[in-house]
Structures are given as C-alpha cells and as structure tokens.
Amino acid sequence: MEQIKNSSVNNQAVNMAAQQNTKERRLENQKEAKQGTVTRDFNFEKKKEKVEQLLQRPRSQEYLTAIDMVDFVSADDEEIIERLMENLGKEFVEEMQEMVDSVEEMIQMITDAFHNEFSEMEINLDDEMIAVLSKCYIEGCDCHAIDQYGNILDHYREDEHLSEALERGRKIFREHSGECQCVEVYKTCCRIVSRSGDVEVIKNN
User: Fold this and answer.
1) CA-to-CA distance for 180 and 173, rounded, in angstroms?
2) What is the per-residue pLDDT for 200?
C-alpha cells in the first residue's frame, strides 16, 4: 500500500512538473511570437522607409525624355507635331523623329526608360504606383497616364472625370503645370517631378 501511495505522489509530482514545463514553453512561445511580430513590423517599416528614400532620388534625363516622347506615338497627326514643336522646340522634335524609324521603336524606348529608372532603384512598384500623369498635346486633352512599365494607359480630355487617385494627381499637375515634367501618382501620395528631375512629395490628405 505504501508503495502505491508513493507511486501516486510521484505521478502527481511528474504531472505538476510537466504542466509547469508546458506553461513555461507556452509563455516562451508567446514571447518569441511577439518578438517575431515586432521584428517583422520593424523590417517592414525599414523597407518602406528605404523605398521612400529611393523614390526621392532625382529622375534621370532618360526618364524625363521618355515623358516628352509619349505623344510622339500619335505624331502622324500634323497638328500634334505642330503642338509638340511649339512646346518642346522644333529642334527636339526633329531630333526625335530622326532617332526612331517607327512607332514600335518609340514605344520600346519609352518602356525601356521606365524599366531602367525603377529597376536601378531595385524596387517593385506594382503595389505602390498607380500611374504617371504628364502633359498631353492631343487637341482637347490636358494629360495622359502612363503605368510603371511605360505603357500608355489613356489620353484624358480636359472635362473627363477620372478616378479619385488620378483626379488628385491631375489637380496637382494643373497647379504646377509650368514647372513640373510629370506627376507620379501613388496610393499614399503624389510626387511632382520637376523639369530638372527633382522630386517633391505631396501626401494624401
């Protein structure tokens, strides 16, 4: 009987020790999980901060020129060519016309410029950038949109209603039309790119 009693006491002690170990492991796991969450949050914020810093870099001349080239895709229209010459200069327009042999080649130059611009920063803008808005010289239009890959999305008429994000970007573009090359529209802000390539951020309200 005494042996059974001792065995029962020993089993209780083992169970209590096991429960204590389980409790300690649970607390340790919770602590590690919390630390892991903090680490992930910290890394995410650091990555976000780095992206913001990279996007503040002045834009290259190749990128700025690509912005000017967008309407050349429609430059078989004499009126558009005249508008381009008035605004960009006859010499620049003639140089662009001599540089490329086809619309396809012009489009490739634009997409290459966009790719080079953002790939050199080593950032993915799929979840960041909505579009780039710049001056449109097609009659009746005030701006056009280009995606982060350099693809022309659309040419917008002056009275055409745009999405909330693009409307916000167009408003900024109109307010700074005399000094900016384009407005990059992001989910959380707009970036005004000056003709010299400098970048100014305007956060969403």
Assistant:
1) 7
2) 96
Distance between CA atoms of residues 4 and 44, nearest Å: 59
Tokens linked to 147: 């995606």
How confident is the chain (205 residues) per 10-residue block, as mean pLDDT?
47 54 64 53 62 89 88 63 68 67 78 87 78 89 90 90 95 91 94 96 90
Alpha-carbon distance of 86 to 197, in angstroms, equals 22
pLDDT at 58: 95
DSSP letters for the chain: -HHHHHHHHHHHHHHHHHHHHHHHHHHHHHHHHHHHHHHHHHHHHHHHHHHHHHHTSPPPHHHHHHHHHGGGGGTTSHHHHHHHHHHH-HHHHHHHHHH-SSHHHHHHHHHHHHHHHHHTTT---TTTEEEEEEE--STTEEEEEE-TTS-EEEEEETT----HHHHHHHHHHHHTTTTEEEEEEESSEEEEEETTS-EEEEE--
Domain boundaries, the chain: 1-55, 56-203
Residue 3 has a pLDDT of 45
